[in-house]
Amino acid sequence: MLLRRYRRAHDSSQRKKLATFLQLFAPKEPILMLYLVAGAWMFVVVLMAGAEAVSREGSGLAALLMLMFYGVLPLSLLLYLLGTPMRRRARHRQEDQEEETEEP
Fold it and tell me: What is the dihedral of CA 31, 68, 62, 70, to 10 degrees?
């Protein structure tokens, strides 16, 4: 949404303000945003599991299963799959650096 505003801004002062805002608050690394969203999701899941554990009809086992099946397992799979391109780029970067240091 902010990028659309930046593209539509006709006034150069508006563009400068939006560019400054985007530089300050846009994540520098995409992995940081991924971990921020994952942390927020785990917070929600922990609250859901806690509510399940303390309710009259709930149980500790149900809360533990909720924590595992709504939180840990889906997030581990998601972080692994979405982190694959970043790991691949890092591996290629490292291989390129090793090739540069090996050449005389």
Answer: 40
pLDDT tens per residue, range 21-52: 766 666 667 777 788 889 999 999 999 999 99
Q: If 0-12 CB within 10 Å is exposed, 13-18 middle and 19+ buried, where does residue 34 land?
A: middle
Structure tokens at 72: 């840990």
Q: Secondary structure of 16-58 in the HEC alphabet? A: HHHHHHHHHHCCCCHHHHHHHHHHHHHHHHHHHHHHHHHCCCC
Tokens of 2: 């902010």
